[in-house]
Amino acid sequence: MHIDVLTLFPEIVQPFFKHSILKRAIEKQKVSYETINFREYTEDKHQKVDDYPYGGGAGMVLTPQPIFDAVECITKHKKSQPRIVLMCPQGETYTQQKAEELSKEDHLIFICGHYEGYDERIRTHLATDEISIGDFILTGGELGAMVVIDSVVRLLPGVLGNKESSLDDSFTTGLLEYPQYTRPENFREMKVPKVLLSGHHEKIATWRRKQSLKRTYERRKDLLDSANLSEEDKALLQELKESNKYG
User: Is the pLDDT of residue 56 over 70?
Assistant: First the structure.
């Protein structure tokens, strides 16, 4: 996968690719990236990339010309069209399912805005996707783009050390992840559940599924509406609704 990030502040984004999972993905040649300062594409003699909105209003709006020209320069020799992701508070709320969808692409372009927003023609005639990471406002789109990139890259084959590492993550199965424990077995009289020490894989799997359902029921009931639940899951969920005695 190749990722291009269009931003007025490439110095914010560049260090992100030099650490942890992203760094290893680049070293393994699973992903490559480039940060593009779209100010370099402006035709304005003062290097402006924003202007006052027609009709009046507070703040400045990013003009279409620099962003269109930057994207056209990036894609002019490409045989296939990339996904062009506009980071925007008006976009669809980001989910794990969207991360999985984007992880199947060969080329992603992220447009990171600033100021009061984008000229509408960027949204309607250039972007293929609009994404919001939540119902709140950030100074710019860089942080949101980095969140999306991190969640996508870790899904690429061969990026994580263990190919099953992401399979049980929260939201991947439609449910929140079950509790995890490690050594020591007894820490300040807080003990690891006995079932996890039993070596009985079927019992452990049942316990984990039950705990995943329990945690989702207690914290994010809304996820259960769209989760793919088996008949056994439904029975465990019904049992959970009737009793709070789980451990």
Answer: yes
8-state DSSP, 46: T
Q: How many CA atoms lie within 13 A of 118 on its CB side?
A: 26
Q: Which of 10, 53, 64, 89 is catalytic?
A: 89
- Same domain (yes/no): 111, 207: no
Asked if 18 and 140 sit in the same domain, the reply is yes
Average pLDDT, the chain: 93
H runs (alpha helix) in the chain: 10-13, 20-27, 64-75, 96-102, 120-125, 142-153, 201-219, 221-224, 231-242
Residue 103, in any domain of the structure: yes
- Residues 64 and 122 sit within 8 Å (Cβ to Cβ): yes
Among 34, 101, 105, 169, which one carries the catalytic annotation? 169
pLDDT for res 79? 84
Length of the chain counted residue by residue: 247
Active site annotation includes 116: yes
Catalytic residue among 69, 100, 116, 233: 116
Asked if 69 is an active-site residue, the reply is: no
